[in-house]
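Hi both,

Apologies for the delay on this - the queue was longer than expected. I finally got the adenosine-5'-diphosphate-bound model through. Below you'll find the protein sequence and the ligand SMILES exactly as submitted, and right after that the structure tokens for the full complex including the ligand.
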Amino acid sequence: MDIVEVKQGGVSTFKLQGRLDSNTSQSFEKRLLDAISDGTKNVIIDFKELDYISSAGLRVILKATKTLKRQDGKIMLCAMQDYVKEVFEIAGFDSFLPIVASLDDAFKAF
Amino acid sequence: MDIVEVKQGGVSTFKLQGRLDSNTSQSFEKRLLDAISDGTKNVIIDFKELDYISSAGLRVILKATKTLKRQDGKIMLCAMQDYVKEVFEIAGFDSFLPIVASLDDAFKAF
Amino acid sequence: MSTTGSVSFELRNNLSELATLCEKMEGVGQTLSLSRRCLFEMNLALDELFTNIISYGFRDQSEHFIRVHISADHDVLTVVLEDDGIAFNPIDRIPPEVPCTLDECKVGGLGIHLVKNLMDEVSYERRAGTNVLTLKKSIEKS
Amino acid sequence: MSTTGSVSFELRNNLSELATLCEKMEGVGQTLSLSRRCLFEMNLALDELFTNIISYGFRDQSEHFIRVHISADHDVLTVVLEDDGIAFNPIDRIPPEVPCTLDECKVGGLGIHLVKNLMDEVSYERRAGTNVLTLKKSIEKS
Ligand SMILES: Nc1ncnc2c1ncn2[C@@H]1O[C@H](COP(=O)(O)OP(=O)(O)O)[C@@H](O)[C@H]1O
Ligand SMILES: Nc1ncnc2c1ncn2[C@@H]1O[C@H](COP(=O)(O)OP(=O)(O)O)[C@@H](O)[C@H]1O
């Protein structure tokens, strides 16, 4: 998996590419938690080019969301393929995680 | 299949891309025979990006070679994948068709 | 005119074998003309189960083989997973509460829940020291 | 640890179905981890036979189905092609003279020659109005 990280106007965007599974989730977790401990409060995760996610990926996003909440931060998820979104729905994560259609929509939320 | 035709120093080079099979051999045949009837005497066929050839493809090359010979022209084939070359060998075409390793080598033959 | 077929292979109990599983499933998907969504859902279910077997199934350090058998017939895809790990019936697991709030939501425990929701049918049998898990899913053609 | 499996499907007697054949074979190749060369040779042999059946096999204008059955076992790939065209045994064909000079070389007549050379074994049977051609080839793993 490739992760492209962009900081802009107080928001850190992580563009995910490829597969977020048990082989790749640890490096993503590190990148996310490093950014948060460096002071990032506003996070966007861009799923546009993510082809695959497993529960190992959900776990990382849940952890980051909990950590951000404790620091009064905010997370937005955007541009998911329909079958990736389905995974969030089955997990019930869509009830507390804001999932929007596009990166633009995600930026507007901050 | 894509065919890129380049004329340079009295030599016409046909770079083949993709599959040369019964669905695509007719358009290649037309391109080749058109060039020959326009006066082209020296032809290189560059196989570098050709992934697939069937007997329909061999047939076109044989026809063009016969036509060229009648007009004292010359054909060179170059840069074949090993399994494409094998097809020419099984057909016995390597005994009368010059097959060289690179486009450079083919140019030098004229 | 449907394509019917089956394939069997074994994976070592190593996470690197996820790539092999994925590669073979892509081949199956292409041969059967599965939709991207259907292939994704199959891959996800197998990934979760395979990862669990590797993570929780074995108490020793030796190499084990997980057998995968996939068959397609009458628009139903059937996958049988066999492992010689400790007896474990995933169907018995109580599902996590869904939907939940962020504070209630516990980290983990989602794998089996996903499998049950993505597959049309899941059945389990312990047979001569082997966990035999059978998954069924109707094929949506792309 | 070898992958075993089989797949069956039907193709219509239309040249456009070559793309379907190729797509399915790519899937088979990926699932079985065939080498590029091995996959190419299988594709070529099937292409030649399929094209011949379409070109020469049917005297009417109706739609026909050509049945393809592929199986892999013990490092041998077996393909069975069945068609209800006119009885034709390709094994009986006298092969073209190879190698030849340009002038001796006739345009055409290479398809069956390629098939025989690319496969390890070819056998033919006429069974109840159907041509049944069986090809065998040992699998080189990539
Ligand atoms: N193959 C298995 N063998 C033994 N225990 C298992 C197996 N698979 C799952 N489990 C148990 O079931 C639990 C739930 O699994 P799962 O729903 O995949 O979530 P997670 O792996 O995140 O805990 C695991 O934590 C483990 O205790
Ligand atoms: N399925 C078939 N049914 C009837 N005749 C066939 C069939 N396949 C091949 N033939 C005959 O065998 C000949 C040789 O076939 P082949 O070696 O593929 O070369 P080509 O198709 O270029 O002639 C064909 O020209 C045709 O007369």
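Main takeaway for now: Chain D has one domain: 4-138.

I'll put the files on the shared drive as well.

H.
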